[in-house]
Description:
This protein has helices spanning about 25-35, 45-50, 55-65, 70-90, 100-105, 120-125, 125-130, 155-165, 175-185, 200-205, 215-225, and strands at about 10-15, 110-115, 140, 170-175, 190-195, 210. Helix 1 crosses helix 4 (about 70-90), helix 3 packs across helix 4 (about 70-90) and helix 5 (about 100-105) runs parallel beside helix 11 (about 215-225). The protein has two domains: about 10-20 and about 95-225, Rossmann fold, CATH 3.40.50.1000; about 25-90, Putative phosphatase, domain 2 (DNA polymerase, domain 1, Orthogonal Bundle), CATH 1.10.150. A six-stranded parallel beta sheet has the order 3-2-1-4-5-6. Helices cover about 45% and strands about 10% of the residues. It has eleven helices and six strands. The protein is an alpha/beta fold.
Amino acid sequence: MENFLKGKRAALIDMDGVLYDSMKYHTLAWQKMMSEIGVECSRDEFYLYEGMTGEATINLLYQRAFGRDCDREEARCLYAIKSEYFKGFGPREPMPAADRMLGALKEAGMRCVLVTGSAQVSLLESLAVDYPGVFAEGDRVTALDVKQGKPNPEPYLKGLEIAGVPASEAIVIENAPLGVRAGKAAGVFTVAITTGPIPRIEFEKEGADVIFSSMKEAAEAMQRMADAP
């Protein structure tokens, strides 16, 4: 495997499913909220929508169930309900070995920028506690900062702007097919880590440059790259 950290100055990193083992709670919260308003949905399908803004996810399901978009204020209220369910399902769980991956990136001299489709305050506020010294103040792009979430490249283009580097000097680290599509559309070398139930083929379809089967595998590979002369 090539040393894809060589010559790179920034890492644009997704949050849910990469830094936190949180997708199992997001998917359950989404299914619970949508089922309560009469929208039939499976829990696992929300893994495929990861990276989209909350409003976009709601509209996708509204179009399928009712043939229309959801009213914007109603969508805001529904997302707030989903967020409360998420908070109630348990404490935050940093993804095992994610700290090792971030350590390798910092050792390689890379600036880390968070790029997430989430606006989940309970996790965003935990970054400084769980990953101290990794993300400088202002080094984040969330659902509140974009008009178009993933799979549109806008979030990663904003991440490049924050990092102050061209696409050729950055990498994207993702665990969702739509996030991979967004990273590739932004012209960035995109690393996929399959921390959820989505099969590898879905990441291959989106053109991921490298695919790791676990965070542990990714962290070990990046540490070797950071240590290479």
